[in-house]
Specification:
The protein has one domain. It is about 75% helix and about 0% strand.
Amino acid sequence: MNFLAHIFLSCNDEDILLGNFMADFITNRQVSEYSPEIQKGIQLHRMIDSFTDNHEMVRKGTKRLRNYHGKYAPVVIDILYDNILARNWDQYHERALEDFTRDAYLTLYQRMTDLPDKLKQRVPLMVADDFLTKYRDENGLKRALRSLDRRAKFASNFEAAAQQLRNERALFESEFHSFFPEVVEMSRTFCKSELR
C-alpha cells in the first residue's frame, strides 16, 4: 500500500494518519520520539505492510511484477494498488476522493511540525502537486513510478509497470478487490482496540 491507501486506512484519526503517513521516513530508533498516538499510526502502517506483503492475492501480482522489477516488485505493486484504489474510490468510501484528499492535505499542513524533517520539505511540494488524486490517472501513475525510478540507485524501469497494469488491469483489479476489504477490516479492528 502506498500513500493513498495508508491515509485511507487511518481510521479518520489525525494522529494515526500522521504515523501511518510518516512510517517509511523514520527508523525504528526514532519511533519513540513521537507521541503514543502517532506511534499507533506507525504501528498500523507496519501491520498493513506486513499483511499486504504476505497476502496470497497480493503475492500473485507481485510474482508477475518480479520478472521485470525483481525484489522491488512489492514497492511497485503498492503504487499500482493506489491507482486501482483511486479509480475505484466510490466502492470503498462515501466521500468524493477530492474531498477526502483535501482534508488529508489540511491535516498534513496543520501538523507539519510533527513530521520528520524529510517530509517537512516534501509535503508542500506533494500537496501542491495534488499527489493523492493524481494516482487516479495514468499520467499520475507514471509520475509516481518515475519518482521511484529517480530514487533507485540502479538502472531501473519502474515506469514500465504502468504498461503492465494496462495489459493486465482486470487481473490486478480482481486481486486488489479480493484483498483490499480484508486489509480494511484488519485496520478497523486495530483502530477499535487502540482508539478507546
